[in-house]
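P.,

For your records, the input lines for the assembly:
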Amino acid sequence: MSLDRVCRLTGLGGVALFFATAFTPLAHALTLWMAVEPQLVPSDAIVVLGATVSPSGILSSESTRRTDHAIDLYHRGLAPRLILLGGARDSGAIEAEIRAKLARLHSIPADAILTESRARTTREEAARVRDLARSRGIRTVLLVTNSGHMARARPLFERAGFEVHPAPSDTYFEPTAPEARLMLMRGLLQEVLGWIYYRIAGYA
Amino acid sequence: MIGIFMLALAGLTSVGAYLLGARRLGLPPARLGAAVGKTLETVGAVLIFLVANLVVAVPLVVALRAVTGTFVSVYVTDDTAWLGLSLLQGLAFQWWREASRKKAGALALEERGNLG
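Structure tokens returned:
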């Protein structure tokens, strides 16, 4: 096959994907298809995986969504402890600490909250939580992250010795603006590529 | 609704550009198909550069971590700027090929003229 033909076919595929993503509900349909069924059963702890925080201490929407979901799970009495993760970007505010502050504002006692801010990857998060949990007898966890990330995170926490109950933080909000749809597809592709990377590297 | 508005507007400006090209600039409508084909080729070249950049970036990040001992996130691949860089690479590559074709075509014509 000539280079011209390869380029033309790739371009055709790219343009078709662009139109299908921006102008149809494809990204939302894929999100629903990839959605993980929640298993909201009583557990030893709720583990909230890190997302991002601005250097000035503003949680990203993803980080806020995960934290809010975990606070709700705690108030529903599903676990007595909250393990909040997340480091700092550019030596600024620490995500886990901001989340802990938010949890305390929602009447969660300080002694029910554990934070971990040194992990930089999902794999490191699983290892750090294992270290935190060992001395506290935590064996079963409600894992809070979005569905796309859950596919990669769950096996890591299971390998770390936990019985994992997924508690996805997805809102399943259907975007209608083309830009929002493209952003949703970008997030999905990012998670799929992350999952492939973890599979190749032998992490998951 | 926003999507329909955008598509309708882009359709309208495309029709306007077609009329301008065909009636005012004297562009042959029959060559429009070839132009669309060239556009797809260029988009394809941009996408190939994008994939190549991202595929090379991951092992490079892993190697950098190993060599320097400092943490570099794989999320470095998750940046819109890659698309801009790949766009420039793809365009330059396609125009390079196009210029080479034109040069080859001109040389062939010159040769034919010399023979005649």
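Two observations worth noting. The mean pLDDT of chain B is 91. The CA atoms of residues 28 and 83 of chain B lie 33 Å apart.

Regards
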